[in-house]
Write a structure and sequence with these properties.
eight-stranded parallel β-barrel, 14 helices, TIM Barrel, about 40% helix, single chain, Enolase-like, domain 1, four-stranded antiparallel sheet, about 425 residues, binds magnesium ion, 2 domains, alpha/beta
Length: about 425
């Protein structure tokens, strides 16, 4: 009889005997196209490649991943997703866990789920217990081809995207300049809902502490013109990108009441859930919160305090597919519907689609057609199939898409690699 040797809880070193061992981690920042994005590939000794992604401060996340988290991952079991997630989360919790650490865990988590999907030859939503629907409702956020994407390598600040200029897929520009034409274009393309950040520019000019009624009225004009043109055929959502303090947020929400938006999102700065609950109590329209919240503790507190009507999650900021599923089920326990954030990258969209496909309480996936039809298509092999306001479920194993291997050019300035030295 072999001697029984129990394995400790969440061991710091890899368990023996795994069939798919992590042997290489690659990261690349496509700074020539999309300076804030970080792509990740995790390789196994069986030749599988898992794909992951996160957005913002890519150099810091790459450093966290290679210089710190790699020590747990390299040589480890690629299929022990929860073990890696929990170990890295608990050790990172020693210094706060938010931001860079959680974005790194998110990117790793996507890649490991992608590997598990390839091993089992199943889309991830099936491994999560789905599908619960055969397609996912999507809305279109009013970006443009250069919203977040730029060729000069300069990283953009959140909430400081430009309005754009005349031309194809210039939804943001057209919202302010040709709102009726935009409304008809969206309806003819099958969309039934869009999201705008019409108040960002007031915040840039005046700050977020107070907003004049003139600025509120100016932002309302395009929405009012769309309501007059197509009535309620289009749902409208309004994102404030966390710019405003409570009095300004209430004034904006009161102004928006006549528009009857499906929700207002992050009008308020998201660093106080008490204030968010106060805002929701005074807000005449439904409140969505928030891709800016992280961890189960944040969301549980917000749900307990009845601080939102919709939960919004970014799967590549909040902890990957693993944590997004947990958050979505948590919200379902409160009968609060869940929506998924994008506007950041193609694998964020795919991760959101898999969770949408697996959790009944999910109701909407954010998309940005201006990104999907321009920058995203160069990053991935299978293009999202979006028709009549719905996206088809991916059919391939894992995430259902692969990153363009040309991105992982070792000569690229934003490329890093770590390899397993077989215990050395
Ligand atoms: Mg948002």
């Amino acid at each position: 009889m072999p001697e029984y040797s129990p394995k400790p809880y969440l061991p710091a070193v890899p368990l023996d005997g795994c069939e798919h061992r992590i042997v290489k981690i690659e990261t690349v920042n496509p700074d020539h196209i999309y300076p804030s994005l970080l792509f990740v590939r995790i390789h196994t000794d069986t030749g599988l490649i898992g794909h992951g992604e996160t957005y913002y401060a890519p150099g810091a996340v790459a450093s966290m991943l290679h210089d710190w988290m790699g020590a747990r991952l390299l040589g480890g079991d690629a299929l022990a997703i929860e073990s890696h997630w929990r170990f890295l989360y608990e050790r990172a919790a020693n210094f706060g866990v938010r931001g860079t650490e959680l974005r790194a865990i998110s990117a790793i988590d996507l890649a490991l789920w992608d590997i598990l999907g390839q091993v089992t030859d199943q889309p991830i939503y099936r491994l999560l217990g789905g599908p619960v629907r055969d397609c996912v409702a999507v809305y279109n956020s009013l970006g443009h081809p250069n919203y977040g994407a730029r060729k000069d390598g300069v990283q953009t600040w959140p909430g400081y995207g430009r309005i754009g200029e005349p031309g194809p897929l210039q939804d943001c520009y057209n919202f302010f300049n040709h709102p009726e034409d935009l409304a008809h274009d969206l309806l003819e393309s099958g969309y039934t809902a869009f999201k705008t950040w019409a108040f960002d520019y007031a915040a840039h000019q005046h700050g977020g502490m107070r907003i004049g009624m003139e600025a509120v009225e100016e932002a309302l004009v395009p929405m009012r013109r769309i309501r007059e043109e197509v009535g309620y055929k289009l749902e409208i959502m309004v994102d404030g990108h966390g710019f405003f303090m409570l009095p300004a947020a209430i004034r904006i929400a009161e102004g928006l009441a006549e528009i009857k938006p499906l929700w207002v999102e992050d009008i308020l700065k998201m660093d106080s859930i008490e204030t968010l609950a106060n805002f929701r109590a005074k807000c005449p329209v439904p409140v969505s919160a928030s891709e800016m919240l992280l961890t189960r503790a944040d969301f549980l507190e917000a749900l307990n305090k009845r601080a939102m009507d919709y939960v919004m999650i970014d799967p590549t900021w909040a902890g990957g597919i693993s944590e997004t599923v947990r958050l979505a089920h948590l919200a379902q326990g409160f009968n609060v519907p869940v929506t998924m954030h994008d506007c950041s990258g193609p694998l964020t969209l795919m991760a959101g689609i898999h969770v949408n496909a697996a959790v009944p309480g999910c109701c909407f996936q954010e998309t940005c057609r201006a990104q999907i039809q321009t920058v995203y298509k160069d990053f991935i092999d299978n293009q999202p199939d979006i028709r009549n306001g719905y996206m088809a479920l991916p059919t391939g194993p894992g995430l259902g898409v692969k990153l363009n291997p040309d991105l992982f050019d070792s000569k690229r300035s934003g490329y890093r690699v770590s390899e397993w030295k077989n215990g050395k």
